[in-house]
Amino acid sequence: MIALDLRSLTLMAFMTSVAMGFVLLMLRRHYPGSIRGMWLWGLAPLVAASSTIFYGLEQVFHPLVILVFGNGLLMSGCALFYFGTRRFHGLRSGWRPWAAVGVLLLLWQVFFFVVHPDYRLRLSAFAGTLAVVLLVHIRLLLQHRGCGFAARFTAGVLTVQALVLLVRAVSTFWLDTPTSYRFTPSPVQSVYVATYSFSVLLVSVGVLLMASERLRSEFEHLANHDSLTGALARRVVLQDSTLEFGRWQRFEHGFALLMVDVDHFKRINDGHGHAAGDRVLARVVDALGQALRNIDRLGRYGGEEFLVLLPETGAGEARMVAERMRQAVAALPATDKVPACTVSVGVACVRHGDTSLAAVLARADAALYQAKRLGRDRVAVATEA
Asked: Are residues 291 and 174 in the same domain?
């Protein structure tokens, strides 16, 4: 590493940044619009790469031009990675304060280049500011609940880069002189430039992994949830119910199943149109979900029927939950686009003698039809049927 020429490292940084920038921008075209921030992530390494053009062509550009544009573009590249992550999480960019900090930093650079030349003061301020930007980015990556491997990986890369920047900002006062410049050979400067080269590559890989994790999560959600209402798919809620039945067989942890049906749904479709019927189903699911606990499972069983799994729940508690759900739907006001509606609920609890989940489902279904026979907009419990 020490024997590497600093210009070679700079060229490697340029090629790496350009390659990763184009990869991110090309892949962005194949990702859904719900995954935001990839445009900024792809632009970031390209902007950072353009800074190396000024650094590498020192014989062509005036030193002051290299100072302003080289440092400004490098700082902008780091900021774009951060703004891309904010967009990825649905946050506004808020770039004005960062732009003000960037302008002040460049003014500092110009002052200690033209008025009072001192490479050490320029480097310490620049490296220290970049380290702060990276630390803010790390905090953003880790503060979201359930951050996955990709976010932790990216945060780890940024942590190493920030530590190198901080060491370089402090060490310049012992290792450099006021007349030193970027390509003055030194082991620390080699590590500083090489770290930047590899960090651009690894951060680009990290944000690409973040986008891939989000894409996989969206596919899993689509596969496991009903696209119209957002409730669990029939396959998923039945699978969860089967697992709960297995727990009952092993540990006798009781559970209840609720069959919910929207009353007179055909009339709603015929009288208001299928679009209104779809809105009714979506609003019913939202009301039902607000009446449930986090551990409860709500799935669309078919058409206007829904299945609710209540783990660790007895008959009395299940009836209370069912009544709360019924009242929540009945309280929904009619609007111009969504008519009012009610639901009927059948309740069944697992009991000794049940050999399969189908037995509990059959009792819940029978209780539901009893509730309908009794006039709808009511709750019926299987043991009372």
From this structure: no
